[in-house]
Write a structure and sequence with these properties.
- The strands form two sheets. A five-stranded antiparallel beta sheet has the order 1-2-3-4-5.
- The N and C termini lie far apart (27 Å).
- It is 28% helix and 34% strand.
- It is of the alpha+beta class.
């Protein structure tokens, strides 16, 4: 995992706003959700569910991924634990092709 991805994950798990180079984490104060951006485009939402981090879910933004299925976008999503890859020009998330 790249250093920027390690720092991104730290900001998500510790719940603070962070940005570096092309990546940004924004923590929504009302619900604690974490929004991850790459080049200003929302690529994922992390729902902690509760503050102890024993449970959380990651929802990749499939619309953004379908528009920009770059190696960097996929790398950031993989760092969050999303199973994402491209095969024969088609991008897959959790084994399902995206449009």
């Amino acid at each position: 995992m790249r250093k920027i991805e390690t720092e991104m994950n730290r900001a998500i798990t510790q719940g603070y706003n962070w940005s570096s180079a092309n990546t940004k984490v924004h923590v929504e104060p009302t619900n604690g959700w974490r929004y991850v951006y790459l080049h200003g485009h929302h690529i994922a939402t992390v729902d902690t569910g509760r503050s102890d981090w024993n449970w959380y879910s990651i929802t990749p933004n499939l619309e953004t991924l379908s528009q920009w299925p770059t190696n960097t976008t996929k790398s950031r999503l993989r760092a969050l634990g999303v199973d994402v890859y491209t095969k024969a020009g088609t991008t897959y998330v959790n084994g399902s092709a995206i449009a």
